[in-house]
Design brief:
42% helix, alpha/beta
C-alpha cells in the first residue's frame, strides 16, 4: 500500500516520533510531515491548497494541545476550501479517553475516527484500509 503523504499534528515530539516510526514500519509512504501545533498544520494545508496532489491523504490530529487544540483546528479546517477537505482524511488521537472528547471527535463531519495514543499497528491498518 502506497500513501503519498501523511500529516502528523501533535505538540509532543515523543508522540510524533512514535507515530512516524510506526507509519514508516507498516506503510510505504512518500512523505511524513510532522508539525508541533495545530496552527502549523493549518498553515501547511493552506500552502498545498493549489497543489491537491501534494495534500496529505491522512491527517493524525492530537486533541490536547496548547493555544489551539484539535477541536479548534477542526473549526478552522471546516472553513478551508473543498479541495483540501476532499483530499484529506482526519483521524483524531488522544491519550485521554474522556468520553466527551471521543464523542465530540466522532460526531465531527470532518473526522473519520478516533484512536487512543500511541497509535497501534492495528489502528493504523484500519486507517490505510480506506485507500486499498
Amino acid at each position: 500500500m502506497m500513501i503519498d503523504s501523511i500529516l502528523l499534528i501533535d505538540d509532543s515530539k515523543y508522540d510524533l516520533f512514535l507515530a512516524e516510526d510506526l507509519i514508516r514500519d507498516y506503510c510505504q509512504v512518500k512523505e511524513v510531515v510532522c508539525v508541533e501545533s495545530a496552527q502549523k498544520g493549518l498553515d501547511y494545508l493552506k500552502s498545498k491548497e493549489n497543489s491537491p496532489n501534494e495534500l496529505p491523504q491522512i491527517i493524525l490530529l492530537d486533541i490536547k494541545m496548547p493555544f489551539m487544540d484539535g477541536f479548534d483546528f477542526l473549526n478552522v479546517y471546516n472553513t478551508l476550501s473543498e479541495t483540501i477537505k476532499e483530499n484529506c482524511k482526519i483521524y483524531m488521537l488522544s491519550s485521554s479517553l474522556d468520553p466527551t472528547d471521543i464523542n465530540k471527535a466522532k460526531s465531527n463531519e470532518n473526522v473519520i475516527d478516533f484512536f487512543e495514543k500511541p497509535i497501534t499497528e492495528e489502528n493504523f491498518n484500519k486507517m490505510v484500509s480506506l485507500f486499498s
